[in-house]
């Protein structure tokens, strides 16, 4: 007999904080918003390395109604599991960057070992009727490891990033092992229907599986539910952040920077702040965005002297070459652009790597006339939803969204869609957004607002849990990872 309100145990590499401290990353933001409402346990990595690694003591801290339990990794585990396998093999592969993906058997082994050890360490914390919900590409093998360790309860999994096309995924030496391991879960959630279809196609073409209906796929004797559950934000909460005093201070600071600017003809200018907020990651299309802004200044010179592009880009995974190179390239490109266009009283492009609280970020979004969310590939992109939630209903800004962002499915009702690889397209979209009449801005924003306030983090969490609770549950002896 199922418990009427079973305990939720979420597992992810990064854990918390639940507070408004501002850690960049959609998983932590989305899961915090969802867990705060529901309560439960959140298990994962402490963010620290120690000699004992995962053999060391687990630390437990209660924040609001969530029990956060974390363990350390050893330095070797951090390198092999997080940097090498998760972020040098899986991340580029799943974001269609085979040119950046590196595969080696040492990191493959460490990745499996860490999945095993985390599962073993989690076991004593689990109760019979728990709902275990594992998150993201760090823990593909966690479900099968938990089954092998004897866990018989319901097991769900959610992938926060894209699941690439089968012909790309099959380049990964362990692609079959990973998908077979995923079949240990009862429900496998994806951000979009495209991701789900890619996964199901892989099951069929590579593993001889069969699609039973819209949501179910069978491989051998395992039947699992594979379904899109687009992640959202706490939209009401975010809208409140946007009118907080802290947000107001940030908004005012930015408004005063742009308010009195004159355009190149010396005319008084409308507010012309363009913002981008992204972890500094090659999947985010930052360089392409800078080129688009440069093209805007070339092709629509009336923006010279008045438009300011603020890119907030907190550093991420800086130890990896691809990320360090991206930073150099962005700094070089920003320097070149400013050198070419800046005047004594106007710096067109400003990039900063600092972190902000969520309230401060909400103020930054609210000050912007335009937000650029132009990833080359992205699972969802919560920034797009935060921007919408933070807007002033009387004078909303315009969202420019990449056709390759997961958020497009829900926000195409009101955004301007661009191909981030097409510099002219991006520049033209910026010009259109900067000059869009108030009525059109309102109409578009209202449509997007509806989507963001409907598809919240809480709803994401609840619909996944509902599916997990009702899913047919037949724990199978799994083949080892
Ligand atoms: P990803 O998960 O790939 O980083 P998302 O857009 O889904 O992309 O999520 C990024 C999250 O990180 C958003 O909630 C955003 O507000 C937050 N964030 C981005 N930059 C900063 C920053 N400088 N300080 C604090 N939070 C940030
Ligand atoms: O949402 C995608 C995601 O990769 C999360 O899994 C991750 O926590 C976040 O972005 C930030 O990356 P990292 O944990 O490597 O700092």
UniProtKB/TrEMBL annotation:
Gene Ontology MF, one: alpha,alpha-trehalose-phosphate synthase (UDP-forming) activity
Lineage: superkingdom: Bacteria
GO biological process: trehalose biosynthetic process
The entry's keywords: Transferase
Pfam families: Glyco_transf_20
Family to which the UniProt record says this protein belongs: Belongs to the glycosyltransferase 20 family.
The protein's name in its UniProt record: Glycosyl transferase, family 20
Organism per entry: Fulvimarina pelagi HTCC2506
């Amino acid at each position: 007999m199922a418990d009427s309100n079973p305990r939720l145990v979420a597992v992810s590499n990064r854990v918390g904080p639940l507070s408004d401290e501002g850690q960049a990353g959609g998983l932590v933001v989305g899961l915090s918003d969802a867990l705060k409402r529901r309560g439960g346990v959140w298990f994962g990595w402490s963010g620290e390395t120690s000699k004992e690694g995962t053999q060391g003591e687990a630390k437990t801290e209660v924040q609001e109604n969530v029990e956060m339990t974390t363990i350390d990794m050893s330095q070797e585990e951090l390198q092999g599991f997080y940097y090498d396998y998760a972020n040098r093999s899986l991340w580029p592969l799943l974001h269609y960057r085979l040119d950046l993906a590196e595969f080696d058997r040492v990191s493959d082994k460490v990745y499996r070992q860490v999945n095993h050890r985390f599962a073993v360490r989690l076991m004593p914390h689990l109760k019979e009727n728990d709902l275990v919900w594992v998150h993201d590409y760090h823990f593909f093998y966690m479900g099968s490891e938990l089954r092998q360790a004897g866990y018989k309860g319901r097991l769900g999994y959610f992938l926060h990033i894209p699941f690439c096309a089968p012909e790309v995924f099959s380049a990964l030496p362990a692609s079959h092992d990973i998908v077979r391991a995923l079949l240990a879960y009862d429900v496998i959630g994806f951000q979009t229907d495209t991701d789900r279809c890619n996964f199901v196609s892989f099951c069929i073409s590579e593993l001889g599986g069969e699609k039973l209906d819209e949501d179910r796929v069978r491989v051998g004797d395992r039947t699992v539910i594979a379904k899109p559950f687009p992640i959202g934000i706490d939209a009401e909460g975010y809208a409140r952040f946007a009118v907080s005093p802290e947000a107001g201070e940030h908004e005012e600071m930015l408004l005063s920077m742009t308010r009195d600017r004159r355009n190149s003809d010396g005319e008084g200018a409308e507010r012309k702040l363009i913002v981008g907020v992204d972890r500094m990651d090659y999947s985010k299309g930052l360089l392409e965005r800078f080129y688009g802004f440069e093209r805007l200044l070339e092709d629509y010179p009336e923006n010279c002297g008045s438009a300011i592009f603020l890119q907030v880009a907190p550093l991420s995974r800086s130890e990896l070459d691809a990320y360090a190179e991206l930073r150099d390239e962005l700094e070089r490109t920003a320097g070149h652009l400013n050198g070419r266009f800046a005047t004594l009283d106007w710096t067109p492009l400003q990039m900063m790597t600092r972190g902000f609280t969520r309230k401060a970020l909400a103020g930054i979004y609210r000050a912007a006339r335009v937000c650029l969310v132009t990833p080359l590939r992205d699972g969802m992109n919560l920034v797009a939803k935060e921007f919408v939630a933070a807007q002033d209903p009387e004078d909303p800004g315009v969202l420019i969204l990449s056709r390759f962002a997961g958020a497009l499915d829900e926000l195409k009702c009101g955004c301007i869609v661009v191909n981030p690889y097409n510099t002219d397209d991006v520049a033209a979209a910026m010009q259109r957004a900067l000059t869009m009449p108030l009525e059109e801005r309102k109409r578009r924003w209202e449509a997007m607002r509806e989507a963001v306030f409907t598809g919240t983090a809480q709803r994401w969490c609840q619909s996944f849990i509902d599916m997990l609770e009702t899913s047919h549950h037949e724990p199978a002896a799994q083949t080892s990872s």
